[in-house]
Automatic annotation (TrEMBL):
Keyword terms: Aminotransferase, Pyridoxal phosphate, Transferase
Name the record gives this protein: Aminotransferase class V-fold PLP-dependent enzyme
Organism: Oceanomicrobium pacificus
Keyword Transferase annotated: yes
Domain of life, source organism: Bacteria
GO molecular function list: transaminase activity
Keyword Cytoplasm: no
Span of domain Aminotransferase class V: 26-397
Amino acid sequence: MTPLDSDFVRAQFPAFADPSLDGQAFFENAGGSYACRQVIDRLSDYYVKTKVQPYAPYPAAEQAGAEMDASRTRLAAFLNVAPDMLSFGPSTTQNSYVLAQAFRQMLAPGDAIIVTNQDHEANSGPWRRLADSGIEVREWQVDPATGALDPDALDALLDEKVRLVAFPHCSNIVGQINPVADICARVRAAGAVSCVDGVSFAPHGLPDVAATGADIYLFSSYKTYGPHQGVMVIRPKLADRLPNQAHYFNAGSRTKRFTPAGPDHAQVAAMSGVVDYFEALAAHHGASGGQEAAVARQVMRDHETALLGPLLDYLGNRNDLRLIGPRDAAVRVPTVSVDLGRHAESVAAALAAEGIMTGGGDFYAVRLLEALGIDQEQGVLRLSFVHYTSRAEVDQLIAALDKHL
């Protein structure tokens, strides 16, 4: 595999050419990534040329609708799913809430669901609230020393009462990649539905959702170099079983029935820009013949893993902090959290003076920090990057950490 061409990649992101960001190394990508040029161009063009009601019988409206349809078709192909399995909503948090309301109508008192305490609250809270309707909520708990989820521990929770299991592809704190295909197979064998929160994984290579075996897969496009919205994949048979959450006359449309307020037309159209970028990345690195998705994922993954190793070694060799998650870069994404034993946000502020953009806190993973025994007021320092991060920026980060830890 051709090594990632960082100069080519960074040229696709206008942020790296902006004078106000010169010398600033961005290490809070888990909270949201920079947008690529292709997305910005498509969003701007839509607002200028086609900011009309789409699908009406005049040219601007027809073009608007065609651009939205193209985004759905192209993104679905990259995710290896059918276009009608894809729904767009204002955010993953909102998509999760809507899903939970649909399940609330379909489940009966005495049915059980399983959630984890490794999750971001957006993929846990809406499901936990089903307890108010008599649904039994079981918690698949992390190892309090490592923060990892053990699939064998899930088996002990699965029985004939369980209807759904919601869990993350990887945690926004721990960073360890969960064996999603194995977990989904266990859930399916138990007769339940799997709901995978891919928000923290998708920025590191839009996944082959079909290969995961997930019944539901969610991620946020603003963390995958696109506009601020949530993307949701639902298997057709499940989508047809779940009660309609949109206008009654949209009940027959899989792409509309789980978006009560309707999507942002311009942002949906701009999602083609994400695919434009990934295709350009893959082509630049030699992809052809339908291998664009696989090549894009691999060059991104190889680059991130190479940069992550030195950072994990540096943090793992210090005895004045606790590195959360595995030290092996091959089994995790480059979202690295450390317990400093002091207020993490104040350290983030000190790092900002060195040109390091990062943050400290609980990052909406309060239950996980509680399970790990981390002081909620102090939180963790989170250092997260993606494939457009350079080796020089990682060196800059390590030098700044060495100065302030």
